[in-house]
Specification:
single chain, 470 residues, alpha/beta, FAD/NAD(P)-binding domain, Enolase-like, domain 1, 3 domains, 7-stranded mixed beta sheet, 34% helix, binds flavin-adenine dinucleotide, binds nicotinamide-adenine-dinucleotide, disulfide bond, NAD
Length: 470
């Protein structure tokens, strides 16, 4: 057994752990980083990167059949599904060096490729090493939750960890779960030529604004994706190539099955009780991301809040302050955006309209602008969509965008909320013409329109000034 003494031990080399390790090492701390699986974690290997790469391939396939309104004869694309998966692999391989053991060792981090578990309040064991550290950061992420559906264990199924290795194109992909994973994969596979059925126990994209989600679902249905809502998958049967899912009294049959019903925090291997770290289904943290053990922090998916790469990165940046400098830092959530990369994209930051009305009642004004009124959207035939901004006392408290480039557009509202900017600051911005970026400015304009153009007081003032102006 080799004993190592260090300032900081980071457990998990995904989006959160890598942010902490890179920042701390570059600022002079001695850092040990443990990773039991692949460097880069879920996002690089099984999540964001492969999903966005497959979506990109699907977008190309879709475009080949969608040129008619532009005067371009549609053709049925010849999809080589295995080659699309090669593209997915290439995207992962291109990004992998940034998250690699070599790069982190180059930054001065000691990387140990093994799973870690607490053996005391101050020590973690990983293989042949026992690491005693001043501070620990748990950044072990999450894994696909596989529900105990009768029959599932006897049938071949995929999760987000295995679907990227599938090289034969599914004839008919059954997807259980209509959250972001389910819907992104549904549209991508439909566009790559698969028949797709989504079985959703409640409402598909149910965590998002219902009006915006409905627009996405309408598009997916229009592209041939069958979406069955309000029915739980109750039983699974069959074998490779012929699988049946029974749900709500109906039997859905397909060739392949993807389970996408949410995540479970990776805490089972950690022996958290040995460290006095409280946990339920995730590690319990306070607003400063501290656990019940004052030497131990938790960041990212394992901390049980919003489960996104940029949130794990944000957490990582935050905990460096107390760990390195002893300064307090509180995690805020109001400005954290998320996006679902369907076409149209669906993005949210802060409160939805329903949440804003519940919290602020009549004090909320909803400023809205439609893509159909944006000239660039018209030129590109991307007119499906809208932006809604929830405003209280002149400041945005939330924004919902559904439509082309929604994920890019939402960033401005995160900036506004993070810095408590007023709507006047967004209205003062000048966006180049013609861009989708104008949508943000026009939404701010829509907030002021009734105040300026429908106000008798403003009309009276203008009338008065005009009488006296030389
Ligand atoms: C299909 C899919 C698509 C997604 N798309 C997006 C997207 O577009 N945008 C977005 O923001 N988010 C997306 N996400 C979510 C995103 O991947 C996660 O929020 C993010 O990876 C969380 O980072 P993390 O550092 O908390 O955990 P992870 O990235 O999961 O990293 C945790 C690491 O810890 C390791 N580990 C676990 N236990 C131990 C242990 N005991 N000892 C040592 N190592 C351990 C694991 O092997 C893993 O490498 C997607 C997720 C999925 C599944
Ligand atoms: N674009 C992105 O940023 C992105 C993409 C994919 C995933 N993610 C992250 O990964 C997380 C997990 O995604 P997800 O889609 O697996 O989870 P999710 O929890 O968001 O959605 C799962 C869905 O499955 C349904 N469900 C649960 N049990 C069911 C059953 N037995 N039968 C039918 N339906 C059932 C739920 O009602 C829910 O709508 C997301 O919440 C998000 O944080 C992000």
């Amino acid at each position: 057994m080799q004993r190592i003494g260090t300032d900081l031990c980071v457990i998990g080399a995904g989006s959160g752990g890598l942010s902490v390790a890179a920042g701390a090492a570059q600022m002079g701390a001695r850092v040990v980083l443990l990773e039991g699986g692949e460097m880069g974690g879920d996002c690089l290997n099984y999540g964001c990167v492969p999903s966005k790469a497959l979506i990109a391939a699907a977008k190309h396939a879709h475009a080949m059949g969608a040129g008619a309104p532009f005067g371009v004869t549609p053709v049925t694309p010849q999809v080589d599904y295995a080659a699309a998966k090669d593209h997915v692999r290439a995207a992962i391989d291109t990004i992998a060096p940034v998250d690699s053991q070599e790069r982190f060792e180059g930054l001065g981090v000691r990387v140990i490729r093994d799973y870690g578990r607490f053996v005391s309040e101050r020590e973690v064991q990983a293989g042949e090493h026992v690491i005693r550290a001043r501070r620990f950061v748990i950044a072990t992420g999450s894994s696909p939750f596989v529900p105990p559906i009768p029959g599932l264990e006897d049938v071949p199924y995929h999760t987000n960890e295995t679907i990227w290795d599938l090289r034969e194109r599914p004839g008919h992909l059954l997807i259980v779960g209509g959250g972001p994973i389910g819907m992104e994969m549904a549209q991508a596979h439909a566009r790559l030529g698969c028949k797709v059925t989504v079985i959703e126990g409640d409402k598909a994209l149910g965590k998002d604004d219902p009006e915006a989600a409905a627009l996405v679902l309408e598009r997916l249905r229009g592209e041939g994706v069958e979406i069955v809502e309000g029915v739980q998958a109750e039983r699974v049967s069959g074998q490779a190539g012929a699988i049946a899912v029974e749900a709500g009294g109906a039997r859905h049959t397909g060739s392949h099955l993807l389970i996408a019903v949410g995540r479970k925090a990776n805490i089972a291997r950690l022996d958290l009780d040995r460290a006095g770290v409280k946990h339920d289904r995730a590690v319990e943290v306070d607003a400063r991301l501290r656990t019940a053990n004052r030497r131990v922090y938790a960041v990212g998916d394992v901390a049980g809040g919003l489960q996104f790469t940029h949130v794990a990165g944000y957490h990582g940046g935050l905990v460096i302050r107390p760990i390195l400098f002893g300064l307090p830092a509180t995690a805020k959530t109001a400005h954290l955006p998320w996006a679902t990369y369907t076409d149209p994209e669906l993005a949210q930051v802060g409160l939805t309209e329903a949440q804003a009305r519940e919290r602020h009642g009549d004090a909320v004004t909803v400023a809205r602008f439609d893509y159909a009124e944006n000239d660039r959207a018209v030129a590109e035939r991307k007119t499906d969509g809208f932006i809604k901004v929830m405003v209280v006392k002149g400041r945005p408290v939330g924004a919902t965008i559904v439509g082309a480039e929604a994920a890019n557009l939402i960033g401005l509202w995160s900036l506004a909320i993070a810095n408590r900017l007023k709507m006047s600051a967004i209205a003062a911005m000048v966006a180049p013409y013609p861009t989708l970026g104008e949508l943000n400015k026009r939404a701010a304009g829509a907030y002021f329109t009734p105040k300026l153009f429908e106000s008798p007081a403003v009309k009276r003032v203008v009338g008065l000034v005009q009488r006296w102006l030389p």
